[in-house]
Amino acid sequence: MNSKYSITQEVVLPSKGFLNPEIPGGIVEQRCLMVSDQKYLAGSKAIKGGRMNKLLQETCVSPDTFDVSRLTLPDLVFLMFKLRILSYGPKMTYTTICPVCGNETEVTLDLSSLEVKELEDDYEKHLEIVLPRAGDTVYTRILNTKDLEDIKDYIKALKKKVKDDDALVGIEYEQRLTRMIRKIVLKEKNEDGDKILEHPVDITKYVAQLPDIDATAIIATVDNLEYGVIPTVETVCESCGNDIKVPIRFSGDFFRPKYDTRSEKIDGLDLSSIN
Predict the structure, then answer these.
(1) For residues 151, 199, 178 and 49, what is the CA-based torsion angle, rounded to 10 degrees?
(2) Which of 32, 34, 137, 193 fits as disulfide partner to 7, beta carbons 3.0 to 4.6 Å?
(3) What is the DSSP string of the chain?
(4) CA 161, 163, 164, 170 torsion-angle sign
């Protein structure tokens, strides 16, 4: 959308483009929220995945090949924070529950000051693991939002056929594992004489017979990779006075801050600071 009122910014994804070759250097250009974008948020009390993906897709204007569904969740959340800052400024105020005393406390934070960890240049070496029990070497990958949506759709279709909820949980677990694995180098050849497994069918069969301790080890390769926005804030509880760490609240007002017409401020932020 071209508009003389539209403001844009360039940001570098926490993954730095390592996971998305179609985004050179991980550089994405965003534009600020416009009135027409509210159709993705209208009527929602909380930020929801499908609408949020569409909103980010619409507000990311470069590169031309940009596809939100190919991003991993940490990159997606990062873009959400950056869009909020670009559109309304960095200040955010909300109430949360103190983990110490259990009372409500108000939190005011500067979203632009949140810690952002970048994906390490040698991240791929952490995606390789020798399984503790099977002894095979497994090479994994980080699932993107398209993978997660495909798994959700797969489970949704199965629900029409399978009534056992416990069985569905197990299938979802297997689906995640299967999609995470790029390649398996067996310690010894299998009964078919294969040493390397790369086809999805072979990987699926392998996962179904895998000891759970090995499955846990596979998942840890991705879980141990830390990158993206750290979605917690340190503050002082108004009730008990303790230093606490609380999560950032992703509610509907994340993209609908209050505007004070008397002071011309958004949640206490001077509009002149938005440029």
Answers:
(1) -30
(2) 32
(3) ---TT--EEEEE-TTTTTT-TTSGGGEEEEE---GGGGGGTTT-SB--HHHHHHHHHHHEEESTT--GGGS-HHHHHHHHHHHHHHHH-SEEEEEEE-TTT--EEEEEEEGGGS-EEPPPTTGGGGGEEE-TTT--EEEE----HHHHHHHHHHHHHHHTT---HHHHHHHHHHHHHHHHEEEEE-SS--TT--SEE-SHHHHHHHHHT--HHHHHHHHHHHHT---EE--EEEEE-TTT--EEEEEPP-BGGGG---EETTTTEETTEEGGG--
(4) positive
The structure's pTM equals 0.86
> Nearest 5°: CA angle at 71, between 257 and 126?
120
Contact status, residue 23 vs residue 66, Cβ threshold 8 Å: yes
Amino acid at residue number 113: S
Q: What is the pLDDT of residue 177?
A: 95
State the pLDDT at residue 257.
67
pLDDT tens-place string over residues 214-271 = 999 999 999 999 999 998 889 999 999 999 998 887 776 688 766 555 544 544 444 4
> pLDDT tens for residues 32-57?
999 888 888 776 555 666 788 899 99
Q: Burial level of 264, CB count in 10 A (0-12/13-18/19+)?
A: exposed
Neighbouring residues of 273: CB distance < 8 A, sequence distance ≥ 6: 89
pLDDT in tens, 74-102: 999 999 999 999 998 888 888 889 999 99
Residue whose C-alpha is closest to residue 93's, from 252, 249, 272: 249
Mean pLDDT (the chain, rounded): 87
